[in-house]
Write a structure and sequence with these properties.
The chain contains 14 helices and no strands. It is mainly alpha-helical. The model has no long low-confidence stretch (mean pLDDT 81).
């Protein structure tokens, strides 16, 4: 098992390294560079050359890549092109805000999704199942920016209950973002609930139809004891990977939501950096997002392997 864990960690590290190379190459292939974006109309002649020397852009791309990747491992993401400020300093508050939004959305969406998934699986084809399954399908098919816009129209414009645009400063304490983040949280939680609910529902239906559940029923084991002691532990195992994929989806979904609600998070910062052609910031945020994505999936694989005795046995036999 230890060998398998080390192998998964190694593959995760290799994936991040490959992704970092792709990100760097993609930025290199874009027209212009950090200096042309920074100098704008003055990007010519000696001034452009001096700027490229200051940024180190006059050196070979391979040298710059290894220096950038090595510095990133140490937490140094470089300097922004627009303000010549440390990217790590700029990213700090924005990442905290994005993590706040994601954490609140997860704490609301995941427990509700698991609960409703179990309920709809146990009461399959009944009115409660049909209702929540329909809501889940609608939540999965409607784009986030559409549902966000509709909620702003209803709760902010028509009813005036909640703010539709977030005006709190990026450096403000987390407590000051309430109740402004309620609408963004609701949108993200709805989409998360839809995916997890359907997975848990299918898993519960499959487990409850298993032979050992039928045998326990024939032996007279109480129904709710069968559900809580035998069915749910096996039915919820697949939810680990779905939750991980949902967290990974949050990395992309949060970008859209942050733009719609003007939320001062990492996604909004990336969109602003793209508009300003601040390529070092775009490059750094892309690396952070990719690293978190790989880390979340790696964690889910490890948790699934630890929680599932059959996988542990197979890994020990295979290793």
């Amino acid at each position: 098992m230890l060998r398998m864990l080390l192998r998964r960690c190694f593959l995760g590290a290799v994936t991040v390294a490959i992704v970092s190379a792709i990100i760097f190459l993609g930025v290199e292939l874009l027209p212009g560079d950090a200096c042309t974006a920074f100098l704008e109309r003055d990007a010519k002649g000696q001034m452009l050359e001096n700027c490229r020397k200051d940024f180190g852009l006059d050196r070979p791309a391979l040298t710059r890549y290894f220096e950038w990747a090595g510095n990133a491992l140490q937490g140094d993401l470089g300097m922004s092109a627009s303000g010549r400020k440390s990217i790590a300093e700029l990213v700090g508050h924005r990442m905290k805000n994005s993590l706040l939004l994601a954490a609140v959305s997860l704490s609301v969406g995941v427990p509700m999704a698991i609960f409703l998934g179990v309920i709809t699986g146990l009461w399959r084809d009944r009115p409660i199942d049909l209702f929540f399954s329909t809501v889940a399908i609608l939540a999965m098919t409607i784009p986030e920016f559409v549902s966000a816009t509709v909620l702003i129209l209803i709760f902010s414009v028509w009813l005036g209950w909640l703010p539709g645009i977030i005006v709190t400063s990026a450096s403000a304490p987390a407590s000051e973002f309430f109740p402004e983040i309620l609408l963004p949280v609701f949108v993200l939680a709805m989409v998360m609930m839809a995916h997890i609910l359907r997975m848990v529902r299918s898993s519960v239906i499959e487990v409850m139809a298993g032979d050992y559940i039928q045998m326990a029923t024939l032996k007279g084991v109480p129904y709710w004891r069968i559900v809580f002691s035998h069915a749910l532990p096996n039915a919820l195992l697949p939810a680990i990977n779905v939750v991980a994929l949902t967290i990974a989806w949050l990395l992309g979904g949060v970008v859209v939501i942050e733009v719609v609600f003007n939320y001062p998070g990492l996604g909004r910062m990336m969109i602003d950096a793209i508009s300003d052609r601040d390529l070092p910031v775009v490059q750094a945020i892309a690396l952070i997002v990719a690293s978190v994505y790989v880390g979340v999936n790696l964690t889910a694989d490890i948790l699934t392997m630890v929680a599932n005795p059959r996988l542990r046995t197979l890994n020990m036999r295979g290793g």
